[in-house]
Design goal:
heterodimer, A: alpha/beta, Rossmann fold, two-stranded antiparallel sheet, globular, B: alpha/beta, 2 domains, nine-stranded mixed β-sheet, five-stranded parallel β-sheet, 27% strand, binds flavin-adenine dinucleotide
């Protein structure tokens, strides 16, 4: 099975998110970076499928040169290849991102199509909820979002189906898609593994080829980022240690939840 | 004209459907146009009347034997056909999973931009809007250049309120579906949980890395059961494998809205906070008086949760007994 995962490098803020002076980006000067959580699960899901059915996983990202760090991480947990569309540090709009990824996928599929392409349901930072769907439609493949369970029929290659579970309030919906197809997955699909020593070594050695793009800007453009207004409330300290228990239970009684 | 795509369940609008019309009324007012609504998969008169109460002047219903259940391709095909025939200036849905999914498909079909999860929209020669990023921790102002503005409003960006409530005109819309629109239909529906779920629980007892182990959660379980609530947790906890992801509160987990959220051993990272901030009240239990969760809570107990929680359980039991 040939599986592609499209992932995004995002900053990992703690107690609050700061914005750069020009308002165009998250101020990441003092932040670490990570793979968007949904896509971490996409990579794990792809690696598990390949372990069951054979084949290999390729990981594709559009971002700055530093995003190769996230590609290498994916290799350290079982992906075979990482491919970068280097667009510098600016965050591209969703139409442009999708067009560039489509271009890259067409280039990567010259010899053989991917049986399955996984996206995160939405990116952790910009949250546009559309890139995977745009790419799927451009490639003429079916796509379903919100997936938390994937099963593949047969040996995973050529013709066959993918059964995908989507969580809804109090249950789930099941879809059955013909391959090749695309899924937007969510955290909770699985519990991603940690890199092994062997994986770490492989990730250091792997070549990260770059794919060029000719995609042009779409119709939605950022003006500025800002933090929502916060209502600051005074915290009432009910006490220290177990002695605070009666005060806590007074609060519960007052709220009528006792 | 503004076309609002309505989410419904049976013969009633969902809260998201009502929110979309409420948001749409304000937007249509700014645009100086009427609100028209689209109902896909039903033409029940109760639905049409309710859409009217919430401000739709006309309701377009699309029924078809293949539209009785959800499918992103089929639903987006209907919306695309409506856009081509009714020529709205803007199309709005509520930013639920389905709302965003359908609008993204519509945008891809039309090769048009789509702005997800808006909280404020200013129409004009060039449209501007404010939308949600980072699950609500950050806002983005953006400009839109499009023939038809395709938008969703953020879930709970407004509180649903009925409008003037006249009976709307009902128009049935003829749809044509192709085989390609039928690939992504729901094949099976499985109902899992009955009773109190995490999003609806009146009390949530949340635990973070500070709980220390999977076993440590038994105290939180006990307290949650006593109070008729549910256990929640942070992503640190799910990543450690101490709790299933279905318990995770936050940006990539569940959004909760209990009467009280008791957050123990949770630092209150922004991605956790966005899932918890709709709680009516928050009580933090933490050894660190400076933790973000403590600073943002209504009440806090400073101390070791392994001592505080058993004491609370004992106190609740004692008062119930007496
Ligand atoms: C894109 C993205 C999405 C994310 N989505 C989510 C999400 O959906 N949900 C989520 O929760 N996180 C999410 N995170 C992770 C988030 O940033 C934090 O890493 C995580 O919430 C921290 O979990 P924690 O508070 O349990 O752990 P920590 O930050 O390690 O905090 C532990 C807390 O426990 C306290 N403590 C320790 N021992 C005790 C004790 N004995 N008694 C009382 N208190 C004690 C400490 O003082 C501390 O405040 C996301 C991160 C990213 C980058």
């Amino acid at each position: 099975m040939r599986i592609l995962c499209c992932v995004k490098r995002v900053p990992a803020p703690g107690a609050k998110i700061n914005v750069t002076d020009d308002g165009m980006a998250v101020d990441a000067a003092h932040l670490g970076f990570t793979t968007s959580p949904h896509e971490e699960c996409a990579v794990e899901g792809a690696v598990q499928l390949v372990e069951q059915h054979g084949g290999e996983v390729t990981v594709l990202t559009l971002g700055s040169g530093e995003a190769s760090e996230q590609l290498r991480y994916a290799v350290s947990v079982g992906a075979a290849h990482g491919v970068l569309v280097d667009v510098g540090s600016s965050d591209w709009d969703p139409q442009r991102t999708a067009a560039a990824l489509t271009e890259a996928i067409v280039a990567l599929e010259q010899e053989q199509p991917f049986d399955l392409i996984l996206f995160g349901n939405e990116s952790a930072d910009s949250g546009g909820f559309q890139v995977g769907i745009r790419v799927a439609r451009a490639l003429g493949r079916p796509v379903v979002q919100g997936i938390k369970g994937i099963e593949v029929s047969g040996d995973g290659s050529a013709a066959g189906t993918v059964t995908a579970r989507r969580e809804i309030d109090g249950g789930f919906e099941v879809y059955e898609l013909p391959r090749p197809c695309v899924l937007g997955v969510k955290e909770g699909l699985n519990l991603p593994r940690y890199p092994t020593m062997k994986g770490r070594l492989a990730s250091k050695k792997v070549e990260i080829p770059e794919v060029a793009t000719s995609a042009v800007a779409g119709g939605q453009q950022r003006v500025k980022l800002h933090r929502p207004e916060e209502t600051v409330s005074e915290t009432v300290i009910l006490g220290h240690g177990p002695e605070a228990a009666p005060a806590v239970v007074d609060v519960l009684a007052e709220l009528g939840v006792l | 004209m503004l076309l609002v795509i309505l989410d419904h369940q049976g013969d009633a609008l969902t809260e998201a459907g009502r929110e979309a019309l409420t948001f749409g009324r304000t937007l249509a007012g700014r645009m100086g146009v009427d609100v028209e609504a689209a109902v896909i998969g039903s033409d029940a008169s109760a639905l049409i009347s309710e859409a009217g109460q919430y401000g739709a002047a006309t309701v377009h219903t699309a029924t078809h034997e293949l539209l009785t259940d959800y499918g992103p391709d089929a639903h987006s095909s209907v919306v695309e056909q409506m856009i081509r025939e009714l020529e709205p200036d803007a199309v709005l849905a509520c930013g639920t999973e389905r709302g965003n999914e359908v609008m993204a498909h519509v945008a891809a079909r039309l090769d048009a931009p789509f702005v997800a999860n808006c909280v404020d929209v200013t129409p004009g020669d060039s449209w501007t809007m404010t939308r949600v990023q980072w699950g609500g921790s950050l806002l983005e102002d953006c400009a839109l250049d499009a023939d038809v503005a395709l938008l969703t409003c953020g879930l709970h960006a407004v509180v649903a309120e009925p409008g003037d409530g006249q009976e709307p005109d009902a128009e049935s819309f003829d749809v044509a579906l192709t085989d390609a629109d039928l690939v992504t239909l729901v094949r099976q529906r499985v109902v899992m949980e009955a009773g109190v779920t995490l999003p609806t629980a009146p009390v949530v007892c949340g635990g973070g890395r500070g709980v220390g182990s999977a076993e440590g959660f038994s105290q939180l379980e006990e307290l949650a059961t006593l109070l008729g609530g549910r256990v929640g947790c942070s992503r640190a906890v799910t990543n450690l494998g101490w709790r299933p992801h279905s318990d995770q509160v936050g940006q990539t987990g569940t959004r909760i809205a209990p009467e009280i959220y008791i957050a123990s051993g949770i630092s209150g990272a922004i991605q956790h906070w966005v899932g918890a901030m709709a709680s009516k009240h928050i009580l933090a239990i933490n050894t660190d008086a400076e933790a973000n969760m403590v600073v943002k809570a209504d009440w806090a107990v400073i101390g070791d949760l392994h001592e505080v929680i058993p004491a609370i359980i004992a106190e609740v039991s004692a008062r119930r007994g007496s």
